[in-house]
Amino acid sequence: MIVGVPRETKRDEYRVALLPVGAEELVRSGHTVLVERNAGAGSGLSDEAYEAAGATLVDGPEEVFGRAELVVKVKEPQPPELALIRRGQTLFTYFHFAADRRLTEGFMATGATAVAYETLRDDKGRLPLLVPMSEVAGRMSIQEGAKFLERPQMGRGILLGGVPGVAPANVLVLGAGTVGANAAKVAAGFGANIALLDTSLERLRYLDDVTPPNIDCLYSDRHTIRERLGWADLVIGSVLIPGARAPHLVERNDLRLMKPGAVIIDVAIDQGGCVATSRPTTHADPTYVVDDVVHYCVTNMPGAVGRTSTYALCNATLPYVLDLAREGVATAARLSPAIRSAVNVFEGRLVQPAVAAAFGLPCEAFHP
Predict the structure, then answer these.
(1) What is the pLDDT of residues 30-55, one digit of tens each?
(2) Spelled out in words, what is the top-level CATH class assigned to the domain 2-127+306-359?
(3) CA–CA separation, 158 vs 234, rounded Å?
(4) Do domains 2-127+306-359 and 133-304 have the same CATH topology?
(5) Which range is least confidently modeled, 177-186, 237-246, 278-287?
(6) Which residues, including other chains, have CB under 8 Å from residue 82's CB and lie 6 or more apart?
(7) What's the pTM value of the predicted model, to 2 decimals?
(8) Taking 90 as the threshold, does the pLDDT of residue 160 lie above it?
(9) Where are the domains of the chain?
(10) What is the mean pLDDT of residues 327-350?
(11) CB atoms < 10 A from the CB of 234, how many?
(12) Which of the residues are catalytic?
């Protein structure tokens, strides 16, 4: 099979979808690997490293998309890339369709197949291709939150960990999954006071046993959220419903409960955001202010730490790339329930119920 790796074109996106070792494994298995020149530059990976691994360098996305049967990316196809996708082709990347109707319908119109990292479930029901980037985003959320609490960034002028004689910041984390747990862990290391909310008592019991005493594990309900919004200096939104749009846990009027200069980091923005006033931003222009509350809603947070993120992501995706290249998407989906769960669009037909429900679109059963 011909496998293509284009250079990512989303603004401030520095990751790449395949390491040189991945290219070598594919070539050793008899596949052809096309890598767009400078695709790995943002992650510190040279063209020479890909050539040494057996990949063929090409000069632009037109050749990658024009020749490849399987295209492996990091972020959803941007409009110029969407125009290059052809019927019968397979894309393996993060799509987050439920947050973008235009992308969903545009991709369906290509007649291609979308295999989405974010809905792939392993045999234990976990999301192994979402976990590594969720770990990065969760840890980054505190790093970014600490910065934007500074007064020159329109924040409250609070040091996250405080100093002797001055109280540390209060951090509210909505959702105790991978993002939330990692955010709480890093915030605790800073010495902040943390309220970690979730609706899973089993998850809360586990985290209560293994986290430090400055993390309070609390059941998430409307009253507790509103109470803690007034207490918080920094709010981390980390709610996930796999494949579906994130629910709004913070409504527009709830901002009135918050302190002027408080900061919201909405990590759920890829799936539409869990704060009603959230809208996508970029690393170049990451924040805006609503009702004196600073909002940070960058849709590709891990892209800023491209080297760390690329290695973490590719370590998880490579086995599935090898399966897709060896078997093709239909056979791979028959043999692997994990790959079957990742197919969102098959040959132009929407087969992911959560995405269909988000937009009221028809959904076909997927029988590869």
Answers:
(1) 999 999 999 999 999 999 999 999 99
(2) alpha beta
(3) 10
(4) yes
(5) 237-246
(6) 103, 106, 107, 110
(7) 0.90
(8) yes
(9) 2-127+306-359, 133-304
(10) 97
(11) 30
(12) 96, 270
Q: Looking at residue 242, what is its pLDDT?
A: 80
Written as six digits, the tokens of 240 are 């996930």
Using CA atoms, how far residue 366 sits from 329, 330, 346, in Å, is 12, 10, 8
Helical pair 20-28 and 306-327, crossing angle rounded to 10 deg = 10
The DSSP H or E segment spanning 32 is strand 32-36
Rounded to whole angstroms, the Cα distance separating 282 from 10 reads 9
- Three-class SS state of 271: helix
Residue from 242, 251, 243, 233 nearest 187 by CA: 233
- In what order do the strands lie in the sheet containing 343-346? 56-58, 32-36, 2-5, 70-72, 90-93, 113-116, 343-346, 349-350
pLDDT value for 247: 94
Helix or strand holding residue 3 (H, E): strand 2-5
pLDDT digits (tens, 9 = 90+) for 217-266: 999 999 999 999 999 999 999 998 887 889 999 999 999 999 999 999 99
Question: What b/e readout covers 307-340, taking b as 16+ CB neighbours within 10 angstroms?
Answer: ebbbebbbebbbebbbbbbebbbbebbeebebbb
Q: What angle do CA 158, 164, 236 make, to 5 degrees?
A: 35
**133-304 CATH choice from 3.30.460.10, 3.40.50.300, 3.30.1490.20, 3.40.50.720:** 3.40.50.720
| pLDDT of 315 | 96
Q: Which two tokens stand for residue 107?
A: 């991709």
DSSP notation for 192-255: -EEEEEES-HHHHHHHHHHS-TTEEEEE--HHHHHHHHHH-SEEEE----TTSPPP-SB-GGGG
The CA distance from 151 to 155, in Å, is 5
Distance between CA 226 and CA 89 in Å, rounded? Answer: 47
CA distance 268 to 180: 11
pLDDT of 243? 77
pLDDT at 273 over 90: yes
The token pair at 15 is 């990751």
CA separation for the pair 106, 64 (Å, rounded): 19
Angstrom distance (rounded) from CA 229 to CA 128: 31
* DSSP conformation class of 264: E
